[in-house]
Amino acid sequence: MSINNYIKDLLNIKDKNIVIDTENIIVKKVKYIDTKFIYGKLTYNPKACPCCGHVNESFNIIKYGSKACKIKLPSISNIPTILFLKKQRFLCKECGSTFSAKTDIVSEFSNISNDVKRKIAIDLTKISSFKSIAESNNVSLIPFLEFLKNGINLLKKDFSYIPPTLSIDEFKSTKNVSG
């Protein structure tokens, strides 16, 4: 097993298309706090264009530069960790649209990893303030509140219908009931 795989295992990155630059792991001070910076690259050959659906058989989807993303990962040994990921950009020759490579470690328009979001959800079960939960996960308060709002919307149930059968358990009536 290469050192790249050990680092990916430590960071809980299961995407095989991400390659970590093992020579370029740096610890810098950000706002007087030591922060670990890890650099990586995400690239693959897409199967089809997400815009027009054209299948990439005759190399009609070409590599078209890269886009750098800054992704917040869970802390390692109480040191905040940030992954600088260069996502591959692609150009579809059929429709002319461009798109980025996708990964499952982060949602499409987010810079907070899904592991950090899971840790926030676990921390919400404990009695503490929103600000302290956001600070302990190295997230500012506004993205934390947006995640909280979107997470609550996902958990809401639809009560706009009545089920066909209603069950009533332990019904007690009085003696003076007419009818």
From TrEMBL:
Q: Where is the Transposase IS204/IS1001/IS1096/IS1165 zinc-finger domain?
A: 46-95
Stored InterPro entries? Transpos_ISL3, Transposase_Znf
Q: Which Pfam families match?
A: Zn_ribbon_ISL3
The name of this protein is Transposase IS204/IS1001/IS1096/IS1165 zinc-finger domain-containing protein
